[in-house]
Batch of 4 targets.
Target 1
Amino acid sequence: MTNQELSLKILELVGGKENVTAATNCMTRLRVNLKDYAKADIEGLKATEGVLQVIEMDNLHIVLGPGKAKKVTDQFKADAGVADGGMSTEADWKENKAAMKAGQKQGKVKTALKSVGDIFVPLIPGVIAAGLCSGIATLITQVNPGYADVKWLYIVHQFLTMINTAFMTYITAWAGYRAAEKFGATPILGGMLGMITTMANINTISQLVGGFFWVPEGGDALNAVLRAGRGGVLAVILGVLLMAKVEKWVRNKMPDALDIVVSPIVILAICVVPYVFVIMPITGIISNAIVSVVGAVCMSESIFVRMIAGFLGSFLFLPLVAMGMHHGLVALYTVQLNTIGFVTLYPALAMAGAGQVGAAIAIWLKAKRTGNKRMMSVIGGALPAGVLGVGEPLIYGVTLPMGKPFITAGLGAGFGGAFCMAMKVAATTWGPSGVLALPIMVAGGDNPMVQMGCYVVGLIISYIMGFIITNFTLKDNEVANA
């Protein structure tokens, strides 16, 4: 099928455009919110050419594969007549809120994780671009310490640094804009609140108020209870959530003739004081606690603690991906990136896909031996993507349907994760994995080349252990009948 044909087929099988309230691209998936899930033909979707798997959660996750998912999602949104996530900057906040509510049919914890994921998923391309640029710029400085004397190389370094800074400097603004779209507030006001978070004026206000908010004379400003950047993206999410509630109240009370002119400044005036003096300090304490706890485990002086954390993290990451809950980790990644400038847990979790690759190779060899050409074809098509770091085609096309390899792949990945954590590999961003993540694995030590080498060794360990464990635990007849 063409992308348009596949989009129309999916639209038909989910109950038509009148049954669709939202559609979002999530890396390799088309996520669809429906008014009535009973109208969706799940089996028909699974049998549709081009659909790798269908996962029923609070919304439908239709796995289409890397690249294709984005194109089909764009076409699907046009065919269904819905905006990204069911929300639009052109829509009234009530319409946006209704669209958001349409997909919230799970428990509070899962709904909260999904909300965080929905805020950050559209930011992933920027996160990846910024992190890759940062990683490559770091490599330039390490491989050629005299790069500034080479004009063209210095220019390249400046461009790379500029791209990274463009995202990292205003990450709170991007998060605020997206959070406003998610929670039903006016997006530009959410972006402004997010940008306020990093303004130097916060330091001046903190010093003028003094007392509880500022450090004693001669102290380190970074330890201030209130300072620029305090709370980061966590503060922004909570601040915009407050703003959404305030905006609803203000617009309900405001006369229509004054709404467009008066409401925005009233909303900001009401929100900015509690945001600066309450939300930023409290979330700053929470952010520091998160960074400290994760750092205590991932960067522990005990190599055994780090290895256990790496093994468990890599092993458990695959079930999170299968359930679509892995984006709940983005808050943790973003807090680390925003607070300390790098991510410690992600390199170990990136091993999960490598375990899939090793397991898939073992299955392919058994499929060849038993004459299961269909399985060989499926693996042959999904394996290159797995090596590049997109593991979902292997998860939903091979290991998860078979059952046992899903566990053995995770166990194999655990060994690579334990090694990466033992070597304190850290990343400049999160998003890419597999071999594509190599340039970002440079933040864990003084020598980025050593860090990249350790990451490669971790991948190889995961490949080998995923292969060995799967090969010894999976019987030929299980593959022949798969």
Target 2
Amino acid sequence: MSHLGERIRKFRKENNLTQQQLADLLGVSRESISMYERGERTPRYEKLIKLAQLSKLSLDELFALEDYSGRDTPI
């Protein structure tokens, strides 16, 4: 599972949402949510923005990029 998939699943479970409920909020299918969580598909940009707004996380946090913010050289 990707970092993003882990974050999506964690957000969904912490908010007691089913995959279908999150899918309805994002305007995608339940199958898409399942694929996002397994790292088999990445949400489109507009869905990432909506997910960030719903979860109150930045895109950096969703993608777990904050883990790399202290490095002296770019990856």
Target 3
Amino acid sequence: MEALREGGFDDILALCGGCCSCATCHVYIEHGPEELKAPGSDDEDDLLESSAHRGEGSRLSCQITLDGAHDALTVRLAPED
């Protein structure tokens, strides 16, 4: 989520500031490690379940910790609910 904001993607609301409580930073993992394509916690899964736009590779960007293995990561912003 922070990387998106720092990259100039102001469309991502992230109302909760990264606390995994609002789902306004919903993205789709388009390209990247398979382990990133599934929710990392039950809380994240519950929030994504409430989205009308949940799809394959849905994640809350605030719950993705980036490292050097994610250099080729490609995400697409989900539509707002």
Target 4
Amino acid sequence: MYLFFFYNIKLSIFILYSFKLHYKMTQAITTCLWFDGKAKEAAGFYKAVFNEVENISSNPMVEMITLYGRRFMLLNGGPGYPINPSISFFISAQTEDEINIIWEKLIENGQILMPLNTYPWSAKYGWCADKYGVNWQLMLGHESSCKVMPSLLFTGPNNGKAKEAIDFYCGIFNPSNIIAINTYEKGEADTEGNIKYAQFELNQLPFGAMDSSAPHQFTFNEGVSFVVTVDTQDEIDYYWDQLIINGAAARCGWLKDKYGVSWQIVPSILGKLMTNPATAPKATYAFLQMSKFIIADLEKAVI
């Protein structure tokens, strides 16, 4: 019970800060990473690792950055949800020097899941978790419309459902596009027909997906979530009602879809209400009572 209460308070503060400067970014998908009090430290670490990190905003709860142009929220959410390999991030390196330098920095006090080496699918590839638990897949010359790309790993009860999930997400977001799907063939290292590698786009942002039949001890959790910012109640209803099918609602705009992937569906008006000292306390009280955001109730609460 205490953890649940603490979790919701963290979310309220998170929304207050994260939308202070970014409520105008509508229908965007931002990646949210959950840290245990080390968001600022992690932001500095990534700035030292990668050559294209920009700080957008900083406060005690949230660090907003762009990594190779893609927006990330680094949330000081507490100890509840450690990041695991279920969602990793592909980095496309253009030279051997680049991939070697990034790799050596990421593995310092981290963990190597697959050594940086030559594999059948790449002249140079490696998978590691950095010291904060964030997982990275580095590949030389990987083709993508974005330098950094989140990749979803479907394991356990989700194993074999990557293609189904891609179709599910592409059916919700517009525009969307399936770029590539490669499956395991008979005699290869995983179940025949499972997705070896897939790439798709949601709102013109690339995502990846893979299946794994191995006995992994992890699955999707709140450690990595995706924030969809919209303008209208119709948009909130649309994304919420579609993504939550056979999933589960949480508080303050959070939900889990049927695969366990966490999403946050947030109205852009919240930022305006939260940055106004006259409306912020009432707005905070109102949205702490909500699961799905109701814009009319927010507006009514601050009158």
